[in-house]
Amino acid sequence: MKKIVFLAHDPGGYDVLFTVVQRMQQESVPLEFYCIGPAAKLNPINAASESRVVQTIQSMLLENKLLGLVTGTSWSNKLELKVIAACKEARIPTISILDYWSNYQARFKDDLGNFIYPDTYIVMDELAAKEAIQEGVPSNILKVLGHPGLDKYIALQRRKTTSIGNKKKILFLSQPLSALYGKELGYTEQQALEDCILAVQGNDDYSLSAKFHPKDNANWQRSYADISVDGALFDIMTEYDLIIGMNTMGLLHAVLMGIPAISYQPNLEKPDLCITTKLGFTRLIRSYQELKFILNTHIGGDSKNICLPKSFIWLDGHSTDRVAGFIREVLLNEY
Q: Model's pTM, two decimal places?
């Protein structure tokens, strides 16, 4: 039996693929789902080694059992590009799904500096399509279908506020920005977290926790074990009164759930990549002094509903339906 292979490496790629895989499994679509690297930690059931993935795809190509390939878009790992190239050489359809509004072209650059694009590059909205074209992505491969990873956040209403008295719970969302950019942004995740700790130090009105990214430096994470929290972000975020991030997707999750959020990027020297500040959903805080001032005001005061523009296709909460439908149309037309 011919099957579709879904492949995820980064957490963001896993988020956009997982709901689509679930939907297609419910419809009895023949598929294999492989999670490697950080995605394997999020889904041990579908975890696989890179060598196993390569061997499986090579065998399926030789035996003519591969209907198509669907991948996320990752940083610092080129396996997705290698299997996309192998499938394209064998004339097997390839689809990649974008998970964030940045680095549209660089995600497809191999170690030799060549760009290996899928046949179809699914992006979340017209803004992403426009920015991708500006970066050099061929316009003919782009398909605007939404963001499957956001559907559950759009559907969720904030369940409760957990503040006790006047004490406010703050959650810092880390990202491995220094591994990607070094010091080019003008700050690092280490500096941002240290600033947050310093800003609430000695203030009994606040309780600060940190949620680390799976790709954050392990030794650095261990040094903050006393404030680290575990668990899926979707499950724990509603416990907090304020979310502080840099340019993480978690800020958009917070906005969609009605939780106050700010983007803290001290001394930012590059164009702002944070989608929530791009769209005007959150404030961009550029200095420690401004952060300290914000935390000394009523941090829950901006928790009123934000008027989200209806022009963004993913706001309808049906991105998974569209993406799954497109995959069926393209890859299962003979099934």
A: 0.83
